[in-house]
């Protein structure tokens, strides 16, 4: 069994550039802690930002399953996020149109079921076609769901929105902000470990083959439609879980929250972090939130005030500039997956073919299998 230091080096800190990235994140975290201790940053504000980063990380992980693993273009991130948020709000808020006032657990379960059903319905007619058809269908789905929520007032409260959504785990001896931040950390850990496990499994290797060359996967006898459907549903469910969490974080939801800009931010997070990398999806989400929320306070800086500039509305410009810089100097993203299409048995240079472990594409050690077994049994194990 490898030591914790070895696990960190193989999973998080694979090269000098990644070490610098994590060192920068550690410095920023330390500065935030110092800011809280010095009274410059309110603890409640920082905890809310942590929860917001966690929500965006869940959304990015969901999109990473679809785009990073299987190459599925999904422009309806905000739609599945909204389905999860409204499922939780309608079932748990006492003053919602349904008026049920159920426990938040039922809201999360409803979000999972509703998002899975909608993903299957949208995937059945589109996943057998080229990727651009899925992109068009998902783009239309996002607007259709937003309009339905806006106009079906008797079921969704329409533009009035739903308030009175209960806090999560209110019985804990913590503030509501600390509780939600703790909950999202647990959710990210569970989702990350689940995705890490399936990413390095035969199922994950088949998906990476489909993304690289779907015709090759078909030639190997794989039912690519079934694999893509599974990836699409899993990603959509994770997005809905993020939406359900947001409902209990914000305690209010209305149709204006389902804006296409949310989908844009999540795509940027996945691209910045590194397509196909779970680590990158989490770090990319943190970077996007840092830019989005940090630019709100630019106008409070004395030097900028003296210049008479209004920089806060330029957050999209800053995001675009960051994309250009990363694509120029780090084309595969901040934390790209290593050796994504190399079978585990071929890792470590192929010199130690009898080794019982090899490095997976997203870190860690897995049992080695022959390439033939991986390609022939991947679909049968699902």
Say what the CATH topology is: ABC transporter involved in vitamin B12 uptake, BtuC
Rough outline = globular
Coarse structural class? mainly alpha
Tell me how many strands there are. Answer: 4
Query: What distance lies between the first and last C-alpha atoms, to the nearest angstrom?
Result: 28 Å
Provide the number of structural domains.
Answer: 1
State the assembly state of the protein chains: single chain
Structure annotation, total helices: 16
Query: Helix and strand succession?
Result: HHHHHHHEHHHHEHHHHEEH
Strand order in space, largest sheet: 1-2
Radius of gyration: 22 Å
CATH architecture annotation: Orthogonal Bundle
Classify the helix fraction into a percent range: 55-70%
Mean pLDDT: 81
Q: Any idea of the CATH class?
A: Mainly Alpha
Largest sheet, in brief, is:
2 strands, antiparallel
Your description of this structure?
The chain has 382 residues and is mostly helical. The protein has one domain: ABC transporter involved in vitamin B12 uptake, BtuC (Orthogonal Bundle), CATH 1.10.3470. The chain is built from 16 helices and four strands. The strands form two sheets. The chain has a two-stranded antiparallel sheet. The chain has a two-stranded antiparallel sheet with strand order 3-4. Strand 3 (357-359) and strand 4 form a beta hairpin. Helix 4 packs antiparallel against helix 5 (104-123), helix 4 packs parallel to helix 6 (131-151) and helix 5 (104-123) packs antiparallel against helix 11 (224-250). The longest helix is centred in the first third of the chain and has 27 residues, at 43-69. It starts with a helix and ends in a 5-residue tail after the last helix. Residues 339-344 and 350-382 have low confidence and may be disordered.
């Amino acid at each position: 069994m490898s030591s914790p230091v070895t696990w960190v080096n193989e999973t998080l800190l694979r090269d000098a550039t990644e070490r610098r990235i994590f060192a920068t994140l550690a410095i920023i975290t330390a500065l935030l802690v110092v800011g809280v201790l010095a009274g410059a940053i309110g603890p409640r504000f920082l905890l809310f930002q942590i929860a917001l980063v966690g929500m965006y990380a869940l959304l990015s992980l969901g999109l990473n399953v679809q785009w990073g693993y299987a190459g599925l273009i999904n422009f309806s991130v905000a739609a599945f996020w909204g389905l999860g948020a409204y499922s939780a709000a309608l079932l748990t808020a006492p003053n919602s149109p349904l008026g049920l006032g159920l426990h938040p657990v039922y809201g999360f379960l409803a979000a999972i079921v509703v998002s899975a059903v909608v993903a299957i319905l949208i995937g059945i007619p589109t996943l057998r076609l080229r990727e651009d058809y899925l992109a068009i269908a998902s783009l239309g789905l996002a607007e259709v769901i937003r309009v339905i929520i806006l106009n079906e007032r008797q079921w969704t409260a329409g533009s009035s929105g739903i308030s009175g959504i209960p806090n999560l785990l209110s019985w804990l001896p913590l503030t509501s902000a600390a509780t939600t931040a703790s909950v999202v950390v647990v959710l990210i850990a569970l989702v990350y470990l689940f995705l890490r496990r399936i990413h390095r499994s035969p199922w994950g290797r088949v998906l990476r083959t489909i993304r690289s060359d779907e015709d090759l996967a078909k030639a190997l006898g794989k039912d690519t439609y079934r694999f893509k459907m599974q990836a699409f549903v899993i990603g959509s469910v994770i997005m809905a879980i993020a939406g359900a969490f947001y409902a209990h974080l914000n305690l209010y939801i209305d149709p204006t929250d389902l804006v296409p800009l949310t989908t844009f931010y999540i795509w940027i997070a996945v691209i910045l972090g590194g397509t196909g990398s779970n680590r990158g999806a989490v770090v990319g989400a943190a970077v996007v939130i840092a830019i989005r929320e940090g630019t709100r306070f630019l106008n409070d800086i004395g030097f900028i005030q003296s210049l008479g500039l209004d920089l806060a509305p330029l957050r999209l410009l800053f995001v675009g500039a960051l994309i250009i810089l990363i694509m120029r100097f780090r084309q595969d993203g901040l934390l790209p997956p290593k050796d994504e299409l190399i079978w585990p048995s071929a890792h470590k240079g192929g010199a130690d073919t009898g080794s019982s472990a090899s490095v997976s594409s997203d870190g860690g050690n897995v049992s080695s299998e022959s390439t033939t077994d991986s390609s022939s049994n991947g679909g049968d194990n699902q």
